[in-house]
Amino acid sequence: MRILGIDPGLANTGWGVVDFDGQKFRPVSFGVINTTPDETLEKRISFIGRDVGKIAMNYGADHVSIEDIFFARNEKSAIGVAKVIGAVCYSMFLLNIDVTIFTPLQIKKAVTGTGTADKHQVQELTRILLGLDKIPRPDHAADALGAALCYGNTSATLNKLGVFK
User: Which of 49, 64, 94, 154 is the least buried, fewest Cβ under 10 Å from its Cβ?
Assistant: First the structure.
């Protein structure tokens, strides 16, 4: 299974593609989609949705895993991220690719085994699980790979339990 993980953000949307055979992960590619504030909000959101769609098609994604909004300390920022999540979901709907949205706590637990892990611990375990020499940079790409690992681990557990998602 090929999983595309997304760490949504209006300025920087991280993405990471991994292959998962039910037991082992293999990194395929990762990166960041950047937008700038000199573009309109509508264009930025549309560009991100379009680019994630291109990435999903180029890499043949079977499933997309998105990290949900963490908290709304900055309401304007949270609303922008929510709009990006909506654009990505719609783009995947058009491509007939299923999407799962995970909370940061769910991603931490699926990658590290604990919901109290800090960002660096999640990124280090992501590096180890993918057999990489160093933590992927920028951080948004590493977080997106973590989202992909979360879906792989979650789906493997559900399959073992006989619960198909």
Answer: 94
Q: How far apart are CA 114 and CA 22, in angstroms?
A: 21
* CATH at 122: 3.30.420.10
Per-residue pLDDT tens digits for 54-83: 999 999 999 999 999 876 566 667 888 999
Which residues share a beta bridge with 6? 15, 66
Which pair of structure tokens corresponds to residue 161?
A: 């339990």
User: 28 lies in a domain?
Assistant: yes
What domain range includes position 14? 2-160
Does the annotation count 42 as an active-site position?
no
Of 21, 39, 42, 67, catalytic: 67
- pTM for this one? 0.93
Name the CA radius of gyration of the chain, rounded.
15
